[in-house]
């Protein structure tokens, strides 16, 4: 009789334990329940080994810089070329614009050989296939630093306008305090991005119209010095065209130089 009671009690306890386990599993959150359409959360254990939900961290693109092309363009260890968003520095390839050397050297100082963080705005690449990114080294915002220290112009090109107001303010600050190119280059030698675009689009006749300091007396330029065929063509024509192709840019003598450039 006593044994029968023990068996009955044991059976009831087992049933209660089984019901408890089923209830616990039904109430335990699943990964799907912890997620929504825009974010996948992950479970981690805290110091008390209790499960907590945390949001996935923003993805950070870390890369090492192996080459600096000019003040606003670099090459990464993965062979990608990056063009800084929202700014424009004096061009090295377009007749060595005023302060182009200094801007390039500053960019070298800031990023060469260092690990950088890359942040995207809207566009992935420009028409030349270069990545368009905001660049950081530690807490230093490289795009802004170049503008604020007078090594670059603010240059907003939609749709990538996230920091346009910041860059405009930085340029105003540099200009008012005559930092960098604002103190070293007189007004006629400051080639703004908009004026450079006019030249590339054919609104200006030659690099001489932009007061560029061209070297037309010795072989100083190669096609690799230019980003576009229009840039190379402008220098070629400014130095005399086919009658004075001192830089040997027109290899086939047809009057059109560096034809492999975009």
TrEMBL record:
It comes from the Bacteria. InterPro entries: Excalibur_Ca-bd_domain, SNase_OB-fold_sf, Staphylococal_nuclease_OB-fold. This is TNase-like domain-containing protein. Pfam families: Excalibur, SNase. Residues 64-184 form the TNase-like domain. Keywords: Endonuclease, Hydrolase, Membrane, Nuclease, Transmembrane, Transmembrane helix. Gene3D superfamilies: 2.40.50.90. The chain crosses the membrane at residues 6-24. One of its GO terms (molecular function) is endonuclease activity.
